[in-house]
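To assess whether ligand presence alters the predicted conformation, the chain was also submitted together with nicotinamide-adenine-dinucleotide. Input:
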Amino acid sequence: MKILVTGGAGFLGSHICEKYVNESEENKVICLDNFSNADLFNIRSLLGKRNFRLVNGDIRDKDLLDKLMPNVDVVFHLAAQIHVDKSIINPKDTYDTNVTGTLNVLESARTHDPKKIIIASTSEIYGPAKYNPMDENHPLEAPHPYGASKIAADRMALAYNKTYNLGVDIIRCFNFFGPRQKDSGYGGAISIFTKRVLNNQPPIIYGDGSQTRDYTYIKDIVRAYDLVMKSDNKDHDRIVNFGTGVEVSILDLANKIIKIVGKDLKPVFVSPRPGEVNRLHCDYSKAKEIYNFSPEYTIDQGLSEFIDWYKNFKSEEWTKIG
Ligand SMILES: NC(=O)c1ccc[n+]([C@@H]2O[C@H](COP(=O)([O-])OP(=O)(O)OC[C@H]3O[C@@H](n4cnc5c(N)ncnc54)[C@H](O)[C@@H]3O)[C@@H](O)[C@H]2O)c1
């Protein structure tokens, strides 16, 4: 099986590449990434493998996609500018990558016709909750440019299904976390809190910490993508949420991390972030029905495994490029 992973050197992408490189020598994995938010560390263990190929390139380059796409069986399109704050500072850059880049992937796939095309959408497209938990029919009202760009990409994939019968699977994960997620700047809250707490610094919370998220451990997310990839079920609209169905407030999350690490710290509160959604709570009943998906990790199990990994990981191994 020949597999193209866009954003393959990022957090999720590196786990997806690793899974299929190690699963079989018959698999050939092409990792396409422009390293705008990637680390070489993420894919270092794969670099010497004969069935792994790294391409430093951009999804905004349609000619490059057309060179890579022939004979590809499966596309995981994960590349995106993922940061809400960056999208507020530079909406055009976010639009170019998330919308035009996705359009390039869809167009190239329409020409070269891989068997499976899986696109990473996100729960962020739903915006402020009209009801909870949120299912796939929840209105798409993301208030920030990141969410708006992901709505456009999600809708464009759906349009390619309806217009050209392309058969794209659109995956809307709620927040996920685990090894290799960025722990600084625009990284994930769990990585950032963990780094601070291990360094005896209190977690910093935007707002009062009552905002909730539905956090899935990365191993469950990789399993979810794999279930979709290996499924023959075409008897639905191919849009599916993945999450745990369990909400946790950011304040509880910070306190859980403090407790697991075993420090005597109290979170610090600062002004809320513009555009931040109050609640994200996943209804994954469709994923359960179609793919028999249920998360295997609770938040506490995921946090413990992640914190153990983090303690053993040496920060000097992280190599920032670009
Ligand atoms: N992390 C989460 O909690 C979460 C939740 C729901 C959905 N998602 C979606 O999952 C996907 C992967 O997210 P992630 O957390 O692994 O993010 P990430 O930033 O670690 O991975 C994205 C990768 O895409 C690359 N990239 C960015 N612009 C590119 C371009 N123009 N050309 C080529 N490569 C480019 C980055 O360098 C990065 O390696 C994204 O599409 C994101 O929207 C993430």
